[in-house]
UniProtKB/TrEMBL annotation:
Catalytic activity as recorded in UniProt: Hydrolysis of alkylated DNA, releasing 3-methyladenine, 3-methylguanine, 7-methylguanine and 7-methyladenine
Name the record gives this protein: DNA-3-methyladenine glycosylase II
EC numbers, comma separated: 3.2.2.21
GO molecular function, one term: alkylbase DNA N-glycosylase activity
Regions annotated as coiled coil: none
Keywords: DNA damage, DNA repair, Glycosidase, Hydrolase
Length: 218
C-alpha cells in the first residue's frame, strides 16, 4: 500500500533515551525521584517483525511471564523462525497445543494471512508516522491501540507514545502520584507535560512499577 513521502521518523537510542530521562527528571518531581533511585530506564527493544506482533497478541490480558512461556514454545516449534509462513503451516490445532487460546490463535493466523497476501506490510511501518502506523495496526483482527502502542514504543522506538491501555502504566502512575485517576483522559492530561518524550516517561514509570514488585523490567 503506497503512502505519500514522509520525513524519516525519529527513533530512540540508548543515548537519546538517557538524555530524555534527564530532561524529564528535571521537569517532573515524580520522575526525578525515579531517576535518582534507578537511573535511566532500559530501552526495551524488540524487532519490527511478525514475531513481535505474535508476542504482543500473546501478552493481551495475561501476565508477561505467561505470554513469554507460550511464545518461547512457539519459537522452539518454528526452529527460531516465527514467520507468517511457518505459523500458517502450523495451523490452529498446533498453536492451541502450544498454549494459544482459540481467540489468540485466530488473531495470529489472520495476521499471517494478511502478511502473506501483502495486505499488511510490516517493513513499511518503519517509514510511516505514528498515526499512520497506528491506523494500519488497528485495522488488523485482534490488534487494538494497546498493541499499536507496544509496537510503536518497543519495535519502532518512537519517542512520544503514551499507552493508556497499559496496566503497569496506569497502576504505576496512580501509585507514584498517590492519586486515583478516574479515567484515561485524566492520565493523559497528567502526562501532557511529558511531551514529546512520553515513551521515555512511560519506561520510567514501568521501571518504578516492577521494582516495587520485586521483578525485573520486562
Amino acid at each position: 500500500m503506497s503512502r505519500p513521502p514522509q520525513r524519516k521518523p525519529i527513533r530512540l537510542t540508548k543515548t537519546t533515551l538517557a538524555e530524555g530521562a534527564v530532561r524529564l527528571a528535571k521537569a517532573d518531581p515524580v520522575l526525578g525521584k525515579i531517576h535518582r533511585t534507578f537511573g535511566p530506564p532500559p530501552l526495551l527493544r524488540r524487532p519490527a517483525t511478525y514475531a513481535t506482533f505474535v508476542h504482543i497478541i500473546l501478552e493481551q490480558q495475561v501476565s508477561v511471564e505467561s505470554a513469554k512461556a507460550t511464545f518461547d514454545r512457539l519459537v522452539g516449534r518454528c526452529q527460531n523462525e516465527v514467520s507468517p509462513r511457518a505459523v500458517r503451516d502450523l495451523g490452529d490445532r498446533r498453536l492451541r497445543d502450544l498454549g494459544f487460546s482459540r481467540q489468540k490463535a485466530r488473531y495470529t493466523l489472520a495476521l499471517a494471512d494478511a502478511c502473506l497476501a501483502g495486505d499488511f506490510d510490516i517493513d513499511a511501518l518503519t517509514r510511516w508516522d505514528d498515526e499512520t502506523v497506528r491506523s494500519q495496526i488497528v485495522s488488523q483482527l485482534g490488534l487494538g491501540n494497546w498493541s499499536a502502542d507496544v509496537f510503536l514504543m518497543m519495535a519502532l522506538q518512537r519517542p512520544d507514545i503514551l499507552p493508556l491501555g497499559d496496566l503497569a502504566l496506569v497502576k504505576g502512575i496512580q501509585e507514584i502520584d498517590q492519586t486515583q485517576y478516574e479515567s484515561s483522559q485524566q492520565i493523559a492530561e497528567r502526562a501532557e507535560s511529558w511531551r514529546p518524550l512520553r515513551s521515555i516517561a512511560t519506561r520510567m514509570v514501568w521501571q518504578w512499577y516492577v521494582h516495587q514488585r520485586g521483578r525485573d523490567i520486562f
